[in-house]
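G.,

No rush on this.
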Amino acid sequence: MKTAFVFPGQGAQYCGMGKDFYDTCREAKEIFELAGSVTGLDMKALAFEENEQLNVTEYTQIAMLATEVAIWKVLDGKGIKADVCAGLSLGEYGALAVSEVMELKDLFRIIRKRGIYMQEAYPTGGAMMAVLGMEAMQVEEICEATEGIVSIANYNCPGQIVITGQEQAVQSAAEKLTQAGAKRCVPLKVSGPFHSSLLQGAGEKLFEELAPIAIRKPVIPYLSNVTADYVTEAEPIKELLKKQVSSSVRFQQSVERMIHDGVDTFIEIGPGKTLSSFIRKVSREVKVYNIDKLEDLDRVVEEISC
């Protein structure tokens, strides 16, 4: 069995995520406390209590990452290890945690800055839209032929592509895509045109924050969203994280690469089951688990250990 850990991105968050782990597991509680001490945020209030901030990018990202790392730490304590890891957008930072490329305090500080910079980069006039039932090449061609800035943000899975850019250009592209045969184009409730060229400035600011941070060689390989290829050395990591903010997220290609290289078991770690759904659309031949709640952890550990 060859196992991959995968971590979800923004949009999967919900009030109360990770609370059962925090209340029950020392390792999880320590992670939330570390994230709070590094960022100066009340992580319990942000992740566990009803509030409006949880769906605001600059707060969503740190709350999601803290939850993902907390769950992974508990899973790791059960002796379940990965051969490779990956994530979708901010979920890539969960993969960075598993790969131990930087200290967790630095990882939490960087994801907090990433959320702020992405929030500030293009505060109004941007949009994202999920395109259902169309081949990626067709979506690419129509985006390129549309006036204004619009491009692919996410290659999620077969039949689901996300486009991003200036609001008018995204709307225009969606109309063309529908006319060309897309089943549906669904607007996403986001606060910016994430993973578009409009966020290059945010990537540059993030790169400056990364400059003084010590980066280590990954203890296990992870796949970059930018290249859908393995990162096995420290040298390219900062540049890839800079590009990731404004580049397309190649999650489908990353899953295909892992399956090609022998991964037959995927464990999604974090809120929801979004990535599990994507992976099953890529292949029905692999085993897919998700760990969102404490009860999920017990079930997965039992099945994996058999």
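When you get to it, here's the other one too:
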Amino acid sequence: MNVSQDLSILHLILNASAVVQFVMLILAGVSFMSWYYIFRKWFAVRETKAQTEQFERDFWSGGDLTSLYQSAVNNRRHGTGSMERIFEAGFREFAKLRSQKNLDPKDVIDGSRRAMRATYQREVDNIDSHLAFLASVGSVSPYVGLFGTVWGIMHSFRGLSNVGQATLSAVAPGIAEALVATAIGLFAAIPAVVAYNRFSHEIDRLATRFESFMEEFSNILQRQMR
């Protein structure tokens, strides 16, 4: 068997020590899960942005708030956007409190704001789900791969203790198979870090839009109380 065959990636993985193979298997599984969540989060964030933009157009078109609320209730079974659910929660609470007699207008607005804030928190938590996993993959995977590399090099050097003369051809396969673990760790970590930073930025922008909407909607409700 020639040197190029001995140092092929598949050959190195198949002939690595059991510990290094176990590390590679873990990293491969983590990488697969990472890519799964990356694609899921990408579609979820894109859909949330599209729904938010559509609802903002509907809201600021000058239509009646009651009609917009009824439309949000009717569309609930088909899936409504985060901002639409925040609006629905706020307007429902506003209508309920406004119908009560002898209730201060400030208490009505505060109740509506609390309802929107609670829904806002649930929506942001839902959009933010699985980001912690991507952050963990990005920070831990290189160290797991490094552990596999160190173990593989130690295993290689222990094997050299039984050889009379250490040559490059004897050392290279063991070190190369150990370094594959680091490569797989980086392969798992780099996409996770890039995706985490990108999604965190997009989710922060969405959260800012939600908060701005809550303030603007609260001002509209306050004017209706006069």
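The radius of gyration is 28 Å. DSSP finds eight helices and no strands in the chain.

Enjoy the weekend,
O.
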